[in-house]
Amino acid sequence: MTRVAVVGAGVMGCATAWALAGRGVDVTLHEQFEVDHARGSSHGRSRIVRFAYPEPDWVRLAEEARAAWRELEEATGQTLLELDGFVELATSPELTSHEALTACGVDHRLLPADEARALGVALPPGWCALEEATGGIIRADVARRALLETAIRDGARLETGSPVRVLDRLDADVVVVTAGAWVRKLVPDVVVRVTRETVAYFRYDGPPLPAIVELGERAGGHVMYALRDPLHGLKAGVHHGGVEADPDEEGEPDGEIVVRASEWLGERLPGVDPSPIAAETCLYTTTADEGFVLERRGRVVVGSACSGHGFKFAPVVGRRLADLALA
User: Fold this and answer.
1) Residue 305's pLDDT band (boundaries 50, 70, 90)?
2) Which of the residues 119, 187, 214, 327 could staple to 89 if both were Cys, CB 3.0 to 4.6 A apart?
3) How far apart are CA 148 and CA 206, in angstroms?
4) What are the residue ranges of helices labelled H in 154-254?
5) Contact between residue 54 and residue 97 where contact means Cβ atoms under 8 Å apart
């Protein structure tokens, strides 16, 4: 039997262990910290889920991932997805995901300003909104644990407080590196940029709001975002607003980004109190095109699959990495 070591127990590592253990593979998951640490990219209570992407390939991948999340919900009896809708905001329809969603047959509609306001979203003059009613959030902490617990139930082993410095020292036939922001420390020639991002939290207990993303002046260019937070009510942030960072160094939330998120939230979601009540950081590990690195190099499989939007794809990424590990 192939013995596989997975390095990093963020959502991608947990998903890879889940996919491998489900196939009866001998798999050990190594995590340098504790499972629920907040130093990487997978912590937090929620992430946006959506089919809305400007390229059909991403839409189809999101559909595949959604089906896998539903399978996990059924297998565990847990609610992972909360789909109160998703809205894209842009200066013109051409900048939205309308064309790709249409090509893939995904239900959506372009909204005039009055219908967007009925959803709780205020549009600047001349802007448009795209509504995808089947979007919303995934309960990130619950989903990550569901992947991990299912993997362990199926025979995977978890070793926490188990930092891996040199891949050659791992006693395994195949090593899958899902180390997030630490990937370059293990596979130095992977071309990624690591930034420390800031998210801010806001108090909201009103009617359900859709998750929203504001697009920039290029098709699919994601600038601002807001989504439901199960604890405080709402969280918001600037996509790719942080500075380059070393993941081994601790960092604090950027106050300027908190202010920017607060001001934007006050303009776009007028029913929300824009006074921030908390903030935290997370790490983005980004490729130049915001795609994923999924490749095999000898006995090493590299899974660098975040770029600030990867969480929703975790079960599909896990299965792809499992395929590579067993190839």
Assistant:
1) confident
2) 214
3) 33
4) 183-186
5) yes
Q: Which of 217, 216, 251, 257 is nearest to 237 (CA)?
A: 257
Mean local confidence (pLDDT), 172-176: 98
Cα–Cα dist 178/180, whole Å: 6
In the chain, the amino acid numbered 24 is G
pLDDT band at 216 (very low <50, low <70, confident <90, very high): confident
Pairing of strands 211-215, 222-229: antiparallel
Radius of gyration of the chain (CA): 19
How many residues appear in the chain?
A: 327
Question: 235: which strand partners?
Answer: 201, 227
Name the region of 253 (left: φ>0; alpha: ψ -120 to 50; beta: rest).
beta
- Name the more confident of 113 and 305: 113
pLDDT of residue 264: 97
DSSP string, 83-147: ---EEEEESSGGGSSHHHHHHTT---EEE-HHHHHHTT-PPPTT-EEEEETT-EEEEHHHHHHHH
Q: How far is CA 263 from the centre of its chain?
A: 24
Paired residues of 212 in beta bridges: 87, 226
Q: Which two three-digit tokens encode residue 125?
A: 């003059």
Residue type, 93: P
Per-residue pLDDT averaged across 167-193, rounded?
97
Strand, helix or coil for residue 307: coil
**321: alpha, beta or left, given left = phi > 0 and alpha = psi -120 to 50?**
alpha
Helix axes 314-326, 56-76, angle to 10 degrees: 90
pLDDT at 219 over 50: no
Question: Could you give the C-alpha distances from 85 to 82, 207, 230, 305, 321, in angstroms and in order?
Answer: 9, 12, 16, 25, 30
Quote the tokens at residue 59.
């839409």
| Cβ proximity of 304 and 283 under 8 Å | no
79, 88, 171, 174: which is closest to 131 by C-alpha? 88
Task: Sort strands 211-215 and 86-90 into parallel, antiparallel or unpaired.
Answer: parallel
d(CA 314, CA 306): 9
